[in-house]
UniProtKB/TrEMBL annotation:
GO CC aspect terms: external side of plasma membrane
Tagged with keyword Transmembrane: yes
GO MF annotation list: carbohydrate binding
C-type lectin domain residues: 77-166
InterPro entries xref list: C-type_lectin-like, C-type_lectin-like/link_sf, C-type_lectin/matrix_domain, CTDL_fold, NKR-like_CTLD
Bilayer-spanning residue ranges: 21-54
Membrane topology: Single-pass type II membrane protein
Pfam families: Lectin_C
Cellular location(s): Cell membrane
Keywords: Lectin, Membrane, Transmembrane, Transmembrane helix
Record's protein name: C-type lectin domain-containing protein
Length: 194
């Protein structure tokens, strides 16, 4: 093979190489710029969408109602605070203990409050603020208002207590834990008001 033929062969190879590259890589600078621009637009849309979602979520949090807390050791439900005692006393001393902290033996006006107390209590029975003179008399709360929540009170005792299965009655001298309640004098406020 002569030098001339060798050079011609090499030059033809380079020409073929350029043709192969032109066939396999059809990416022009304009196409590359368009792809980069599309990627940047998609990233920007994601950032804007996430920002809007976070703003909406934080706004929803701002609109939630916040209840002012009950005293330490008390549990809030609705507009009331409840205290579940650690110690045990008879019904009369339990009422005196509740009164000494500005409360009464637990009173509830709704079935939701009763369900809350039943769920929250532990394995012990707790005195509540219902009593009656005898099994022939109507149940009254410690403030002398009549019982207006429709539920069954089991037993024939003159004082009511909360059990795992609902409300029962027993003798006033039996020693049990107590639940005190008081109306939360602080009104509920919205974070928007702050």
């Amino acid at each position: 093979m002569s030098y001339y033929n060798l050079m011609r062969f090499v030059l033809q190879g380079k020409g073929l190489q350029k043709k192969c590259l032109a066939i396999t890589s059809s990416v022009t600078p304009a196409t590359l710029c368009c792809c980069i621009l599309i990627i940047l637009i998609l990233v920007a849309l994601n950032v804007v969408t996430l920002s809007v979602l976070l703003a909406v979520r934080s706004r929803e949090t701002d609109l939630q109602v916040v209840y002012v807390t009950c005293p330490k050791g008390w549990i809030g439900f609705g507009n009331k605070c409840f205290y579940f005692s650690e110690d045990s006393e008879n019904w009369t001393l339990s009422q005196i203990s509740c009164t000494s902290v500005g409360a009464v033996l637990a009173q509830f006006e709704t079935e939701e409050e009763l369900n809350f107390l039943t769920r929250y209590k532990d394995i012990f029975d707790y005195w509540i603020g219902l009593s009656r003179e005898s099994s022939h008399h109507a149940w009254k709360w410690t403030d002398n208002s009549k019982l207006n929540v429709p539920f069954v009170i089991q037993g024939t005792g003159e004082c009511a207590y909360l059990t795992d299965s609902g409300v029962s009655s027993g003798k006033r001298y039996v020693i049990r834990k107590r639940i005190c309640s008081k109306t939360n004098s602080n009104v509920s406020i919205s974070l928007d008001a702050l």
